[in-house]
Write a structure and sequence with these properties.
Elements lengths: L2 E8 L2 E8 L2 E9 L9 E10 L4 E5 L6 E4 L13 H5 L15 E8 L8 E3 L4 E2 L3 E4 L5 E3 L5 H15 L5 E4 L8 H24 L4 E4 L4 H9 L4 E6 L2 H14 L1 H4 L2 E3 L12 H8 L3 E3 L5 E6 L3 E7 L9 H23 L3 E6 L6 H15 L6 E6 L5 E5 L6 H5 L15 H16 L7 E5 L1 H8 L3 H11 L3 E5 L8 E5 L1
Parallel strand pairs: 1-14, 11-12, 14-15, 18-19, 22-23
Antiparallel strand pairs: 1-2, 2-3, 4-5, 4-7, 4-13, 5-6, 7-8, 9-10, 10-12, 16-17, 17-18, 19-21, 20-21, 22-24
Length: about 500
């Protein structure tokens, strides 16, 4: 599988597209004024402790207080105790661990999403090129993506390199083939970073930022490059130089794939990335066979509905449904990555009568989800024929980042009809007439509502005017939404 990474840079925004075999698979956007907080370490102050919720709100100097749950409060355990034993230890109540006004070092594990503040943890982890450093722990682990038969040997190598200085480390996937020298350099870099963070915590008053995670450009080299990556093309000469220097120091293998894009066409036009972004913001996703997906995102969950549409490719109706669902399994997994959808996701595949078809679709769906760099979990088909799944959510989805609720419908997706609004206006005038005695009523509303009053509803308007004994005049206002209106008493 051939993979290219395209980087479109501007002073206000960085956009990264991961393209596999000519198709856009992932999109990452970072805006200078809206940079994400995940990975940042702060010295915060406990603003409020809620024993009933076993949580606390932490002031970090942001717009909203951040949320710390008792499950994310680090507890010291006996050295050498395996992680499974630690998970079984009883949790100390949060009111016995933190108190209001207490300075507390915390790390952001989820960005603020919607009306919710950031989610925090007191267990710090610092990601390097090859390793993740857990300064408060002593556990040495190896990424689950590395084959099981290699993990023990890698863990023994790591134990020797860490030595008596201690600290917990997890070997990342791209550290599988690293030399001892490269691992030792990463260990030294991470320990030096932690020393700097601790020193800052003793000097700075809360709330203060102690450590900021890498920018999206730098995370391209650290997190997004894989063995399949053929090239990383960037369209800014200045950023290319900065990224090359950063890569040569910390990630030379990834930096060797950097290329400066000098083409006349915008870099995202190479694979129609902007068109893919536009499609990823819509509800309907067309499949090649003629079927289509409907994606609806709400605050609580996301629903994805699969439809056959115009696909009549097979003689057998069961085979038609089966092939549509198989194609949908690929399309859904790709849309989850493109749109960065997270949380609870409900997929409504087309009903299949044969159990072997259901098993094959579910197997293919899980296989495609396995390509995701974000943790996913898909259950089997429910009694209602739905597939329930979860995808870890750490940042805003693409739609939440690029869009905002419609000011007319306020995110409902529908508006009341002109006739419904007209009848609301008639009732409001009658209500006002019982309380006030003006000379005249003037209705200011959208052109469609006014047009209805002048045509089909003119008789009802005239009847109301006669009933209250006052004239009612009309004024069209193009700037008003269909549901908006004003009744002026003259």
């Amino acid at each position: 599988m051939q993979q290219d990474i395209l980087v479109n840079w501007s002073p206000q925004e960085t956009r990264v597209a991961i393209v596999e075999n000519g198709a856009v698979q992932e999109l990452h956007v970072e805006r200078t004024l809206e940079r994400g907080l995940v990975g940042n370490i702060y010295l915060g102050k406990v603003a409020r402790v809620l024993p009933g919720m076993q949580s606390a709100f932490i002031d970090m100097g942001l717009e909203r207080a951040a949320f710390l749950h008792v499950a994310d409060v680090w507890q010291r355990h006996p050295e050498g105790e395996p992680p499974t034993a630690r998970n079984s230890q009883p949790q100390v109540p949060i009111e016995k661990q933190v108190f209001e006004g207490q300075p507390l070092m915390v790390q952001v594990i989820k960005d603020p999403i919607g009306t919710k503040g950031a989610r925090l943890s007191t267990q710090v982890s610092i990601a390097g090129r090859l390793l993740v450093f857990l300064p408060q722990d002593d556990h040495l682990g190896v990424s689950q993506k590395i084959p099981a038969d290699q993990r023990d040997a890698l863990r023994r190598r790591l134990t020797k390199l860490v030595g008596a200085a201690g600290g917990g480390f997890i070997l990342r996937t791209n550290g599988e083939d690293a030399t001892d020298e490269e691992l030792a350099e990463d260990i030294a870099y991470l320990r030096k970073t932690w020393t700097r963070i601790r020193e800052s915590a003793t000097r700075l008053p809360p709330p203060s930022l102690l450590h900021q995670d890498l920018s999206l450009l730098q995370r391209v080299l650290r997190d997004l490059v894989s063995e399949e990556t053929q090239a990383i093309r960037i369209d800014s000469r200045e950023q290319f130089g900065l990224l090359a220097a950063f890569g040569e120091e910390f990630m030379p293998a990834a930096a060797s794939k950097l290329q400066l894009y000098k083409g006349e066409r915008p870099i995202f036009d190479l694979y129609s990335v902007d068109e893919e972004i536009a499609k990823a913001l819509g509800r309907r996703v067309d499949l090649k066979s003629g079927g289509y997906l409907i994606v609806d995102q709400t605050e609580a969950l996301t629903t994805i509905d699969v439809n056959t549409g115009g696909f009549v490719g097979s003689r057998n109706f069961d085979d038609t449904i089966f092939k549509t669902n198989l194609e949908a399994a690929h399309g859904i997994a790709r849309q989850l990555r493109l749109r960065n959808l997270g949380g609870i996701i409900i997929v409504d595949f087309i009903d299949m009568q044969r159990e072997d078809h259901r098993d094959a679709v579910l197997s293919e769906f899980r296989k495609q989800l396995g390509r995701d760099r974000v943790k996913t979990m898909a259950a089997g088909f429910s009694q209602l024929g739905l597939v329930e799944m979860t995808r870890k959510r750490t940042r805003e989805s693409l739609a939440h980042m690029l869009c905002e609720p419609c000011p007319v419908c306020e995110g409902k997706g529908t508006v009341r009809t002109p006739r419904t609004v007209a009848y609301d206006i008639l009732r409001e005038i009658l209500r006002e007439a019982r309380q006030f005695n003006p000379r005249e009523y003037r209705v200011i509303a959208s052109p469609k509502v006014i047009e209805l009053f002048l045509d089909e509803e003119s008789q009802h308007l005239a009847g109301l005017s006669d009933f209250i004994g006052k004239p009612i005049s009309l004024q069209s206002e193009t700037a008003m939404g269909q549901e908006q209106y004003d009744i002026v008493l003259l």
